[in-house]
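Q: Hi! First time doing this. I have a protein sequence and I read that you can turn it into a structure. Is that right? Here it is:
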Amino acid sequence: ALWPRGVRGTPLAAVVCTDGEIDHTLGLMLLREHTMKIPVYAPADVISLLTDQWPLFRALSAYAGADARSLPDGAPIALADVAGQPLGISCTALGVARRPPRYARGAPAGTFDVGLRLADERTGGTLSYIPTAAAVDAVVERLAAGADLLLFDGTFWSDGELRSAGVDAVTAREMGHVPVGGAGGSLGALPRLGAKRTVLVHINNTNPILCRGSAERAQVEAAGIEVGDDGMAFEL
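A: Yes, that's right. Below is the predicted 3D structure, encoded as structure tokens:
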């Protein structure tokens, strides 16, 4: 290669966090192996969580650290690398569920989950990424309208899915996830958002849409929506 990376080099130029959930942010611990502060973009309230209640940034400060950068609500920003060089990607974040993680239930009201609208400044391609959504509302419509690709919250098929599986008593909506199926589910609303391609992501292992040949998966596919799978790649 013309520009070989060092022994602990990384192809990562920056990281964007949509929330501060433990299972969504544990991967940041891998930044301890790096030799420079990788930029980590997140809502200001999430940065606060990752500094105090779930002190990942404090732990990383003993190593290379992380460069925490705040994502403004509703205003597009140009993502940049560790040296401040633009990455050619514009990012707009909007709050989609204002529920703090379970470990921070006492936190004051704030923006703890955002959806993203990413635009490639070279190709003009647009991606809407919404892994957590309490409803298909005006905010989701703003993020998804006309996007080349929408990756949307497919966590649960039904509101009482975890209860039915004997896993937990909490419902999908109590966790901040609109279920895919049933009355008020996302399946009926997603095709109307105007995204050119929609893929369900963040799918829990209790969700029957993971089973090829299931009635639930057939409903999703009949609506022109795809079920996300490991290894999928998209070019915008």
